[in-house]
Design brief:
The complex is a heterodimer of chains A (267) and B (154). Chain A is mainly alpha-helical and 267 residues long. Chain A is 69% helix and 8% strand. Chain A is elongated. The relative contact order of chain A is 0.11. The model of chain A has no long low-confidence stretch (mean pLDDT 93). Chain B has 154 residues and is an all-alpha fold. Chain B has one domain. Helices cover 77% and strands 0% of the residues of chain B. In chain B, helix 1 packs across helix 5 and helix 3 runs parallel beside helix 7. Chain B is elongated, with a radius of gyration of 17 Å. The termini of chain B are far apart. The chains are: A mainly alpha (267), B mainly alpha (154). Chains A and B meet through helix 2, helix 3, helix 5, helix 8 and helix 9 of A and helix 1, helix 5, helix 6 and helix 7 of B.
C-alpha cells in the first residue's frame, strides 16, 4: 500500500478545515487591525467570522505585531497566529471588512467566499491619490496652524510644507523605510520649509509655523486607540500603542530641533 | 461682539483640519463633509468653553462629548462609521503642538549650562501634563456617549 492509498484520518481533515477557518478569520482581523480598528472591534469581527464558519468557541489574543486565535469545533481544537504589519488608518477598508464580518455571521458564508471577498477588498478598496492626500494634509496642517495662532503670512508656507512632507512620507513609507526615521526626516524637512517660507514672507509667527508644519506626523488615531484599548480591557496593546506614539513624537521633535538649529531659531 | 467671528474662525479651521485628516484616513467622499461638520462642532464647543473661562482640558472634554453624542444621533444615517467620524472631528483638538513643545523643552534641558533649568523643566512638565489630560479628555469624551448609547461597530 503506497502513501496515496492510505486512509485519510478524519481528525486531520477536521484540523485542516479548522486551520483554514482560523487563517481566514485572522486575515480579516489583520486587515482591520492594519486599518486602524481597536482591539475589541478586531476581536468581535474575527469571532463573527469564525462562528459563521461553525466554530463553537473562539479564544483570541492580540499583540502589537500579531494576533493569536484558538478555535474549537466538533471536539477538535486548533491554535494559530498571524503576523500583523504596520498599523495605519484606512477607514474605507476597515468599514468594508466590518461589513463582511457581519455578512459572514448572518449568512454563514463559506470559507472560500470569505477568502475571495477579502482578496477583492484588499485589491479594489479605493484610496485617495497621493497628490490629493498631500494637498489635503497640507491644508489640515495650515488649519491647525491657524487654530494655534499662526498669522496669514505663514498660512501658505505651512500648507506647502505639510503637503511636501506628506508626499515624501507617502513615498518613503511605500519604500519600507523605518517609520521613526521617516518621522524624524519629514519633521526636519517640513519644519525647515515651513519656517523658512514663513520667515521669507515676513511672518511674526515663524516658530509656530515650524511646529504647525509637522502636525501631519502627530498620531491622533493611535493615541485615542491606545486609550480605547486600555478602557476595553487590553492594557498591553494600549500601552504598546502609547509607547509607539511617544517614540514617533520624540523622533519628530528631534527633526524640528535640527530645523531650528539650521535656521538659527533656538534649539 | 468679537465672539462670533472668533467662533466662526475656529469652527472653519476645525472643519478644514478634520476634513484634511479625513482624506489621509481614507474616508469616502460622502463621509468627508460629516468629518468637517464634526470638526466644526468640536472646535465651536471647545472655543465656547474656553470663552467661558473653562480650562483647555475641560473644554476639550465637553467638545468631545458633544461631538460623540451628535454623531450618535446620526447613527441611522452614518451606520458603523459614526464613531470614526466623531474621532476625525476631534483630531484637530489633539495637542500635538503641546507635545512637541514639551519634548523640545526637555531637549533644551540637555544643553550644557542651560539657562534657568528649573523653569525649563517646569514648562516642559506643564506641557506634558496638559497633553496627557487633553488626550484623556478626548478619549473619555468620545468613549462615554459611544458606550452609553451602545453605538454599533458592525
Amino acid at each position: 500500500m503506497n502513501e496515496t492509498d492510505a486512509p485519510i484520518d478524519p481528525v486531520v481533515v477536521r484540523h485542516r478545515a479548522l486551520e483554514r477557518y482560523a487563517t481566514t478569520a485572522l486575515r480579516a482581523g489583520r486587515m482591520m487591525m492594519e486599518s486602524g480598528a481597536s482591539v475589541s472591534v478586531v476581536h468581535r469581527g474575527i469571532t463573527m467570522i469564525a462562528k459563521g464558519f461553525g466554530a463553537e468557541t473562539v479564544g483570541l489574543r492580540s499583540g502589537y505585531a500579531s494576533i493569536a486565535m484558538t478555535l474549537h469545533a466538533e471536539g477538535n481544537t486548533i491554535t494559530r497566529m498571524l503576523q500583523v504589519g504596520r498599523l495605519g488608518v484606512n477607514h474605507r477598508l476597515d468599514l468594508a471588512v466590518r461589513a463582511l464580518c457581519s455578512r459572514a455571521a448572518r449568512e454563514n458564508m463559506s470559507v472560500e467566499a470569505v477568502e475571495a471577498e477579502l482578496d477583492r477588498l484588499a485589491r479594489e478598496t479605493p484610496r485617495h491619490s497621493a497628490w490629493l492626500t498631500a494637498l489635503a494634509v497640507g491644508l489640515a496642517c495650515a488649519s491647525f496652524g491657524r487654530l494655534l495662532g499662526i498669522d496669514w503670512a505663514a498660512f501658505g508656507p505651512v500648507w506647502a510644507a505639510g503637503a511636501v512632507g506628506q508626499y515624501l512620507r507617502h513615498h518613503l513609507m511605500h519604500r519600507g523605510v523605518n517609520v521613526f526615521l521617516v518621522a524624524g526626516a519629514i519633521a526636519f524637512i517640513a519644519a525647515t520649509l515651513g519656517g523658512l517660507g514663513a520667515w521669507l514672507l515676513g511672518s511674526a509667527t515663524t516658530q509656530l509655523a515650524m511646529m504647525a508644519s509637522i502636525l501631519l506626523l502627530v498620531p491622533g488615531v493611535p493615541s485615542t486607540n491606545a486609550q480605547t484599548d486600555i478602557m476595553d480591557g487590553y492594557p498591553t496593546m494600549g500601552s504598546a500603542r502609547a509607547v509607539w506614539v511617544l517614540m514617533v513624537m520624540i523622533f519628530a521633535s528631534v527633526g524640528v530641533w535640527c530645523a531650528q538649529v539650521l535656521l538659527g531659531m533656538g534649539g | 461682539m468679537e465672539l462670533l467671528p472668533h467662533l466662526a474662525h475656529q469652527a472653519l479651521f476645525g472643519a478644514l483640519a478634520a476634513a484634511g485628516f479625513g482624506v489621509l484616513f481614507n474616508f469616502g467622499l460622502r463621509a468627508l463633509p460629516w468629518c468637517a461638520a464634526a470638526g466644526a462642532l468640536a472646535l465651536a464647543v471647545r472655543t465656547l468653553g474656553q470663552d467661558m473661562a473653562w480650562s483647555l482640558e475641560g473644554a476639550t472634554f465637553a467638545a468631545a462629548m458633544v461631538t460623540s453624542c451628535a454623531v450618535s444621533f446620526l447613527h441611522r444615517r452614518l451606520g458603523p462609521a459614526c464613531n470614526a467620524v466623531a474621532l476625525a472631528g476631534c483630531i484637530p483638538m489633539v495637542p500635538g503642538a503641546f507635545l512637541g513643545q514639551a519634548l523640545l523643552g526637555l531637549f533644551a534641558l540637555t544643553v550644557p549650562n542651560a539657562p534657568e533649568p528649573s523653569a525649563l523643566l517646569t514648562d516642559a512638565a506643564i506641557s506634558m501634563i496638559r497633553v496627557i489630560f487633553t488626550l484623556g479628555a478626548i478619549g473619555a469624551g468620545l468613549a462615554i456617549p459611544a458606550q452609553l448609547l451602545k453605538n454599533q461597530d458592525f
